[in-house]
Amino acid sequence: MQQAAGTVQQARAGVAASRAQAAAERTRVTQAGATVNTARANMQQAEAQVNAAQAEVVRANADVARYQELYSKDEVSRQRLDQAIATARTAEAQLQAARG
């Protein structure tokens, strides 16, 4: 009888250990899912930053074209054209940085 009781006790301990291992695995799976979700959100944010940087490059380059035309007509200063060129170069550098 005592031997049977000991065997039952060992079986119960084994079941408890198995349940604890299963709970730990569920926790790891949940954490992995959260990590994947975070990675997806980070990727979406990075894509949005690239898109914004691309839009800024387009705008800045359009400004350069406009200011070049105005400069050729002597309607804006060389300084203003240079500022537009510098802004376009900065926008391009920011796009490259956003792309990684």
Write the layout of secondary structure elements.
Blueprint: H1 2-72, H2 78-99
Q: What features would you highlight for this structure?
A:
100 residues; mainly alpha; 2 helices; Helix Hairpins
What report would you give on this structure?
The protein is 93% helix and 0% strand. With 100 residues, the protein is an all-alpha fold. The protein has a single domain, classed as Helix hairpin bin (Helix Hairpins), CATH 1.10.287.470. Helix 1 runs antiparallel to helix 2. The longest helix is centred in the middle third of the chain and has 71 residues.
Distance between the termini: 71 Å
Q: What is the CATH architecture descriptor?
A: Orthogonal Bundle
Low-confidence sequence ranges: none
User: Helices and strands, in N-to-C order?
Assistant: HH
CATH class: Mainly Alpha
How many separate domains? 1
Average predicted local confidence, pLDDT = 94
Structural class: mainly alpha
**How much of the sequence is in beta strands?**
under 5%
Number of helices, counting only DSSP H or I runs of 4 residues or more: 2
Q: Report the major sheet.
A: none
Helix content: over 70%
> What is the radius of gyration?
32 Å
The CATH superfamily bears the name Helix hairpin bin
Number of strands: 0
* Shape summary: rod-shaped
CATH topology: Helix Hairpins
Summed up, what is this model?
By secondary structure, the chain is mainly alpha-helical. It contains two helices and no strands. It starts with a helix and ends with a helix.
